[in-house]
Each structure stands twice: as structure tokens, then as C-alpha cells.
Amino acid sequence: MxxxxxxxxSYRIKVSCGYDAQGKQVxxxxxxxxxxxxxSRQIEKELQRQTVLFEEACMQGNVVATIKFEDFARQWFKxxxxxxLKESTLQGYHTMEARTYKAIxxxxxxxxxxxxxxxxxxxxxxxxxxxxxxxNGGKLSTKTIKLYKSMISSILDYxxxxxxxxxNPCKNVQIPRVTTPEKELYTIEEAQKLFxxxxxxxxxxxxxxxFYILAIYSGFRLGELMGLEWKDINxxxxxxxxxxxxxxSKDRGHYTETxxxxxxxxxxxxxxxxxEVLRKWQGLQDVQRKKVGSKWIExxxxxxxxxxxxxxxxxxxxxxxxxxxxxxxxxxxxxxxxHLNATLLINSGIDVKTVQSCLGHSVATTTLNLYCHxxxxxQAAAMDAVAEALPLSYGNKNKITASSGKGEANxxxxxx
Length: 416
Fold this sequence. Notes:
Elements: E1 2-7, E2 10-19, E3 25-32, H1 40-59, H2 69-84, H3 87-95, H4 97-104, H5 114-125, H6 142-161, H7 188-201, H8 206-218, H9 222-226, E4 233-234, E5 239-241, E6 245-249, E7 253-257, E8 267-269, H10 272-292, H11 315-327, H12 334-347, H13 352-359, H14 364-370, H15 372-389, E9 399-403, E10 410-414
Antiparallel strand pairs: 1-2, 2-3, 4-5, 5-8, 6-7, 9-10
Helix pairs in contact: 5-6, 8-10, 8-12, 13-14
């Protein structure tokens, strides 16, 4: 049975939907406001119609989502995300809550539209980064904006499953195309110069020399490199396998998790020279183990601190920045080594599916999107190679006879 309460110029309609498992009465409410200029009779008639429609919706189990987006999102984090998402993903989503709630948190689920979310996405495109990693400022990356959309969409998908709303308004939201700056990569000449510098560097910091040589030849992600254990390396077959990733959080410190995707669990056969670098580092680590004795903590990790514990994820980057300052090398980030590996594969004529497999991307479209320009350049070079192998040239005096399609008349055209 519905009850109607007049509140100023509006009417509140309340319907009882029975009782929940704890015996608490469940009610649904909606507010209806007459259009300006409606007569008393028109208002009464339309009010009764709205009441009947609302009662029918409640009887059919179509819960009206009067809960605000922020309140429902917090429920989603507790009921769904905490139990189903990886901790790294969950942490990333938590960092995006404040901006999201400020923009759309106050809007009721049943009132949240595609337009609301689209406006928020457009605002994000003009938002300055505040993570401290870009001292000169800069806008949020397209990848970060996609993560915002992904989080909102996941929350609203859950609302659909819970029958709070009929459809997800986030599905039609578009992310503006943003010109992505060229990735900072070393040229082949710079990489060769780096290897020359590593010869001297290996006398003092062999762990980092080993780390970066493995990074460029494997294309592994930072977490995958830090998570490598000696049992993952087969020196007989020269195969290195990714079985885990090493992540970090303030609450847990360094912890081990499954790789980013199922496809990230992969095995690569590496050159013999790279395996020799790994073997030498294993020997040096054994020397360190004997040196510290009982202070050594066995983790089987390839890249470790002096006492056997996993090397800090930030340590290679800190070392390499100082190395570049000492040697005059141009500094690039750790992830740039992965991009360089992909670029070398593509420029060597390796097909996209193989590149996808080597990099551990879940789908080939990810590889194509990330390295679109590289593939295009490689394809253009391939076409040039065909033209060089089979040149096509006609002298000015040469003629090609083409049928006009009308009777037996032919027309001759000069082709230059």
C-alpha cells in the first residue's frame, strides 16, 4: 500500500516492500513534482498514475536506487572488490575515490546519467597530476583516465546485477583521443654505448648490470623481474619463466602476487650471453650468502639485498639515475626497457601475436594500441624493401594499352 505526503510543491510517494532477513521493514520512496501550470485536477490524476506505476515497479522487484553513488560505491568495495580484485588493483581504485566522489558521489544511482559521467571524464582530461612524479606538472595520462572509467563501470555493473538500475550508463561514455608523446627509448647506438659502460660497472654493481641486461632482452615488467626466483631459470635450456610478480604497499611492504594476467605467465628462451650474465650473478650471490652466514634470509629471489631479502622495487631506478649522472648517459625509466624490447622485436619483423606473447599482453589489440606507430613504421619499411627488390619504372616513351570496354576501341595512356 502506498502513502502520499505533500512536501511544499512536491509529493513524496512511499511504498512498503515487505521485510528483510532481520525483520526490518523495507520501503521505497520517490518524489514527484507537478509541471508548472497544471490544474488541481490534472495534478491529482497524474499523482495517482505515478503512484500506481511506482507500486507496480516495487511489486515486480525493480528496486528504485535512491542510494547515492558514493554510498553504493563504498558498499561495492566492501561486498565485491575486497574479495575479488587483486590488492594492487584495489589500491589503485582507492586512490581514485576522492576525485570520483567529489564529481558524482552525491548523485543518486537512479539519477546518474551518461552525461554526468562523460562530464567527469572530460574534466579528468584537464586535471593536473598530483602524485609527485612529475615535478613540472602535466595532465593525467589516458591510461589513468581509462582506469577511472573502468572503476565506475565496474561499480555500476554491480548495481545492475543487484537490480538497482536497469542498465549501466557508463557503457556509452567516450574517452577523448589524446596525442600520446613518443616513448623515451634508447637508440641502438645508445644501448651499445651502455653495454660498453656496463663492462666497467660490472666490477662494482653487478646486480644492477644483470638486472638491466635481463630487462632489455626479456621485456619483463618491473614486478616480474623483482619476483624472479632461481627455480624459474633453466640454465640447460636457457629458458626463463614468469610465475609471479613482486609488488609493494605501505601496509604489507613487499609481497608476492600472481602475474598481471594469465597470459603474463610465460616462458622465454634467452641468448646464451644473457644466461652467462645470470649465472655469474648467481655465483656472486652465493659468495655473499657465505659471507653473511646466519644473517642470510633464504628467499630464492634472483635480485636480493645483502641479506637475501627481496631487493626494493625502487632500487634499480635510483641506481640507474645516479649511474646516468656519473656517466653522462641519457636517463630513461625502467619501463622504457620493456618498450625498447618491443620495438626491437617489431623492427625485426616479428608478427604481432608473437610480440603479444613475449610481452605477456592479454590480447593482441593491447600490443597494437601501444605500439601502433612502431608497427606502421615497420610495415612502411617492409614495403620499401619490396620496392627495392622489385623496382617498377616505366620510361616516358612506354605505353600501356587499356580496353575502353566499348566494342574493340582501345585507348593508350602514358604512364610515368
